[in-house]
Records
---
Amino acid sequence: MSTVRKLGMAVMVVLTMTLAACTTSAVRPTGVVTGVADACVGHPVPPDEVLHVKLSLDSRSTVVASTTIRSGARYRFSIVPGEYRVTGWWGSRSVAVRAGRAVTANFASDCV
């Protein structure tokens, strides 16, 4: 077998192994933080006004996810297991996320 042919085969083997490594990445388990967030519960809101609630999910003072939802709507964060804080304008709450499980953190504010 010629040197060029041997070199070509070696290159093909390396490329095949490299591509295989790229496509066989490990899937990390996830958990879910979900709940309902309400703003100004019990207070009249004009029919043409829509209240929104901004939520963030923090891990060690770093925002890892955020969303803005309509008041009274459900939010959902799908993330890797760990300790987090769900934060909004009303304050924050600690949650522990476990693989394959959902943790619920509902929030309501009476705007007082």
Note: The CA atoms of residues 37 and 107 lie 5 Å apart.
---
Amino acid sequence: MNRFRIVLFIVLSVLVASCSGTDEFASNSLIGVWNGEVSERDLLYDLSMRIARLDTGRAAGTATYSGAVSCVGTLTFEGENDGVFAFRETVDDETVCADGGWIEVWRGVDGSLQWEWFRSEAESQPDAVATLRRGA
């Protein structure tokens, strides 16, 4: 095998390996704090979502709600499918916020984070939506 074929083989191997599994760049670009306003029926309230890590089945961060709704949710990363990242949410005060919600997020073309909250993963329509921007 000549050098050109060896180099080509190595380059193609690296490319194929980097294409398998969750896109690491997309995953890492979600890490951080995201802020925005949630719209839920006739309610508007603030959300600050902190994503610290994306390890399936493990604690991923928090969602802090304030304003018309005030509670903190702990997020567990459930996985990624076609650029949509899913989280299970456990809240600290079930009298104010629903426990066990399902959150889906994906990157918008403008760099925003599109956010949807469902009462359960079986729901087809979100109960609350938001556009989040990177914050501090």
Note: The chain is about 20% helix and 50% strand.
